[in-house]
Amino acid sequence: MQFTERFNYLLNANNITAYKLSKDTGIDQTLIGRWKVGKQFPAMEKILQLADYFNVSVDYLLGRTDKPEVNK
């Protein structure tokens, strides 16, 4: 699963809209929309922010593993 698919899955599974994500994180809605359709890939700082927001590992968010657990 690639970033776009995983990102959309996390949004849907957590019932999070682009508006809510934008409001909670300060990330521009337009940017979120581009990620949702795969037109743009987030910068590393945004990937880290998203991983923290959804409480998943960066590897999970990027599709490198199917285990969402964060190793701390």
Q: What can you see in these coordinates?
A:
The model has no long low-confidence stretch (mean pLDDT 93). Helices cover 60% and strands 0% of the residues. It has a single domain (3-61), classed as 434 Repressor (Amino-terminal Domain), CATH 1.10.260. It contains 5 helices and no strands. The chain starts with a helix and ends in an 11-residue tail after the last helix. The protein is an all-alpha fold and 72 residues long.
What secondary-structure arrangement, pairings included, does this model have?
Blueprint (H helix, E strand, L loop, with lengths): L2 H11 L4 H8 L3 H9 L6 H11 L3 H4 L11
Entry keywords:
mainly alpha, 0% strand, globular, 434 Repressor (Amino-terminal Domain), 72 residues, 5 helices
Question: Helical percent range?
Answer: 55-70%
Reported for the largest beta sheet, the result is:
none
Average pLDDT number: 93
Give the C-level CATH assignment: Mainly Alpha
How many alpha or pi helices? 5
Describe this structure in a few short sentences.
The chain is built from five helices and no strands. Helices cover 60% and strands 0% of the residues. It starts with a helix and ends in an 11-residue tail after the last helix.
